[in-house]
Amino acid sequence: MSTELYIRYAESLLAVTGTGMLLDPLHGQVTKAFAPVGYPSLFPVATGAWKLAIVALNFVEDGKYSQYGQWMLATLMGGAIWHHAIGEGHPAASVAPLVFLGLSAAVPYLQNKAPLPMAIAAALACAAGGFAIGHLLPKSKKSAAKKEKK
Questions:
Q1: Per-domain boundaries in the chain
Q2: Taking the CA of residue 49 as centre, how many other CA atoms within 13 Å lie in the half-sphere pointing to its CB?
Q3: pTM over 0.70
Q4: pLDDT band at 74 (very low <50, low <70, confident <90, very high)
């Protein structure tokens, strides 16, 4: 098996966490964990569906669409970096998202779908988008809470 296939298999671990997040309305653990940061209540469900879509794109038609999954992964990891480093205030917890961000650039390159500089640039651009979403999303809920208190 090729290296990129091993990487895609490793990324399949997202299916486990994605399923847990998708089922959050049944157990509420993710919503409870995200509450201090201020994410909307359906954010865990949307994130879980996003993770499962990444895994699906990695393997549909033998990875034909994995490049799109990698861009989605980079976006997710940008948000995860924001969540851990800024939202929770634990920058060291961003190590795993940084590793997965690197993998999101490696897969398109290893599949010969993009030259390395382009793969890195695309991953960083998507991660920047995810970071921005992480920054903007919780504020909208906090702003609404402040308005309600007034």
A1: 3-140
A2: 5
A3: yes
A4: very high
